[in-house]
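Newbie here. two chains, one complex. Structure please?
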Amino acid sequence: MINMIWFLMIVVGVIVGGITGNIEAVTKAAVDSANSAVELSLGLIGVMTLWLGVMKIAEESGLVSALARALKPIMIRLFPEVPAEHPAMGAMVLNIAANVLGLGNAATPLGLKAMEELQKLNYKKDTATNAMCTFLAINTSSVQLIPTTTIAMMYAAGSTDPTVIIGPTMIATTLSTVAGVVAAKTFEKMPMFRA
Amino acid sequence: MLSNLIDVVNAISKWSIPVFIAGIVTYGYIKKVKVYEAFTEGAKEGVYTAVRIIPYLVAMLVAIGIFRASGIMNALTTAISPLARFIGMPPETVPMALMRPLSGAGAQGIMLDLFKIYGPDSFIGRLAATMMGATDTTFYILTVYFGSVAIKNTRHALPAGLVADFVGIVSAVLVCRMVFGK
């Protein structure tokens, strides 16, 4: 799936770029994107280091496993393949908590920590597990409770009432998360997605 | 009332990170963890994790960059607009919906343009803001998360993420129509 989409984005992009006379823009985009990908990755080193450090304290203090225990009834249903007391559960809870609170730069490092823990349970190291896919469906659907950045941008653009979007956003993002989880759970059984 | 709510929102975004960090450090200290040593132990991983992502992120961002620069988004917008109109989605917001899973900064840029043209308190402005929060940058998240553990076969993660994006956008339209009436 990812191979096909990646292939199509590049080939269709180049062909359409040629037809529409945007081929120079395509060249520039390819090079610029490669540069910004490296900048973006290296730019993550700071927050990554910070949050993985904080995460280690949370782990050694027992906070991570306490969180996993507290949310056990939900977590074992979402991730039946992961042992209830496994550190992966606590890391996923922390990542989702950071997402809900809108702590954008904390969420990614905590999520990567969770992926590392999930990978320890994976016997086929280059292939995603069901738990990983469900976890990512939750992440990609966004579970942020209050969209602080967007509200700030509306305010800056002259909105007199930016907080009206909080309710609709909560409903829409809840529905998208439910849809993502249901989709992940449904797709994982399909032969074409078998591990 | 309004300024109160904004104050609360601002306070949350200002305080959440420091409180989160101080809370975890304090909890660790009470539980007799050698907090400084534990921090540095965990932090060591940061550099490697960030570097490990590079090839995956280059691959994905280059493809997205080519795709966006080709001008195909305009053609897709034209193709999708009748369908969008059917559910009551203004065609002006279609490019943003298409951009949302590909690029967070790109979608944000389109949202700001919509604010500028139609005003943040217009139906289009509010819908764009709601779409922003309804889903996340699926392609980026999948690339970074799977890249960090060197997973190449992502199985059903992308289709599931795209289903979530689609439902998020459609829900945003329907809820906004109900709440802001149009």
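Moderator note: The first helix of chain B runs from residue 2 to 30. The mean pLDDT of chain B is 91. Thread marked as resolved.
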